[in-house]
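hiii, so i know i said id send this last week but things got crazy w the move. better late than never?? heres the sequnce for the chain we talked about at the cafe, plus the structure i predicted for it. fair warning i was half asleep when i ran it
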Amino acid sequence: MSDIHVEQITKTFGGQAALKGVSVHVGTGEMVALIGASGSGKSTLIRTISGLVSGDRTGGSVRIGGVVMQENGRLSPQAKTIRGGVGVIFQQFNLVSRLSVLTNVLVGFLGQIPALRGTFALFTREEKMKALTALDRVGIAHTARRRASTLSGGQQQRAAIARALVQNAQVILADEPIASLDPASAKKVMETLAAINRDEGITIVVSLHQVEYARRYCPRTIALRDGMVAYDGPSAALTNDFLRELYGEASEELVLPDAPLRPAPVREGIIAGPSLATA
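okay and structure toks below
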């Protein structure tokens, strides 16, 4: 259960369409960046794939591993089971600050153990060892006994990734996981996600506000514009000049201030090299 199929999903909030007939396919073991200017629909798409948001009842579906997560605006009876294999990482970490880092990671087991044990945080030695292994995997095993509130932002985000690992997630959806981090912490988080994708074969979709991270860590990028897919292809093709053609003035918020300007692709007609996807 690790590929993702989104077919003709539309989502409207208060009469404003956040997604307009979006269709994407992410193959098993891919690491795909999702980019777009503010309001383009990135977070809505992430939440729709994860089943946290239902699409409009205008048709459309989301399937993960071939199993329906939602269809025609309704979550399927299998949605809860599917969510057990989908780790969702948010910008704000979603850790309980007063609890230890280890306990926060152990929360990833809650969907796998009896409710009574989960309610009273009765975790086995084996589960604790798995959580410690996950923390070691993301490079912060030494913080296991510390309160989550004492960690830096980058460390907290890596703890959230460790929580997804103990969940045995086959798909990780990361919604702007580095947006609130300094460049060094952002680099470490992206390196961690890329290593997990490479070594464990976990399918990862990560929404990013700055394209340079997509170029560096994700072989493929899906670009949204006004709730529609505007580009789907190699990240290496996303030159700064192409982004300006795609987003106009809004492209400035997608490019890091220190990102080198890349030469424009050779033109044949209006745009050569990467092509704009039709919506």
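btw The domain at 4-85+169-254 is CATH 3.40.50.300 (Rossmann fold). thought thatd interest u
miss u guys!!
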